[in-house]
Specification:
This protein is mainly β. The chain has 2 helices and 18 strands. The protein starts with a helix and ends with a strand.
């Protein structure tokens, strides 16, 4: 049995019972015992994790489909920072469009600790609806309204590690599991080797599972739904 299959079966079994790898540290769905203690002095200014590098000035473009229509996501690592709970986080913009029409604009906040783990400290997101209104319900910030930071990428990911990526009850409850290591994937950008694969789920949408594939030196190269509506994004270009 391959390590990838074993991890996938483990994930399925855990999901089916309502348990998860992170339960040991995160506690119940209330999040009452999930309170990671982060020391600002243990963080560095550069985010250079091999599977989630965020060098200032980098731009990544993805093409895909979401909500039944094509979508282009343009992600830029900005020369801007935001201090969150004493930690200086890097600001990353993510702009989603369909045929030039703005769908969503998000500012994400990331920071890397001295061990090389990349932490997700929140996001300021605005969805632009067809009726002309906006929706900011997905926004959250660590330390505000009991929101907690999460890991977006471990320094040394191993099958079947599991971890919370974010936590704000009822709004941001994503969890990831490392499900595969090695192999290659072909995307519009090119063939990416030595990839890392994760499975993701959220208690906000029970039964919905996604897969993400990361490339060394690049970050996410493929993101796709495994259940629910068909959604995907594939890396097209990288600059900076």
């Amino acid at each position: 049995m391959t390590r990838t299959l074993l991890a996938a079966l483990t994930f399925a079994a855990l999901a089916g019972t309502g348990a998860a790898v992170w339960v040991a540290t995160a506690g119940s769905s209330s999040g009452a015992t999930y309170e990671p203690v982060l020391d600002p002095a243990n963080f560095v200014s550069t985010i250079d994790n091999p599977y989630y590098p965020l060098p200032v000035g980098r731009t990544l473009v993805y093409d895909g489909s979401r909500d039944g229509q094509t979508q282009t996501d343009t992600i830029k690592v900005l020369d801007q920072t935001k201090v969150i709970e004493g930690i200086t986080a890097r600001v990353v913009s993510d702009i989603a469009t369909h045929d030039g029409t703005l769908l969503e604009k998000t500012f994400d906040w990331f920071a890397q600790d001295k061990d090389g783990n990349v932490w997700y400290l929140g996001e300021d997101t605005t969805a632009y609806l067809k009726n002309g209104k906006t929706d900011t319900s997905g926004s959250w910030e660590a330390g505000v309204n009991d929101a907690e930071p999460g890991l977006i990428m471990e320094a040394s990911p191993q099958i079947p590690d599991g971890y919370r990526q974010e936590y704000l009850a009822g709004e941001a409850e994503d969890t990831a599991w490392i499900s595969g290591q090695g192999g290659s994937v072909k995307v519009p950008y090119g063939v990416v080797r030595n990839v890392l694969t994760t499975l993701e789920a959220t208690q906000v949408e029970p039964g919905i599972y996604d897969q993400k594939i990361y490339g060394p030196g690049l970050g996410i190269v493929v993101e796709q739904s495994l259940t629910g509506p068909t959604e995907y994004a594939k890396l097209v270009s990288v600059s900076g």
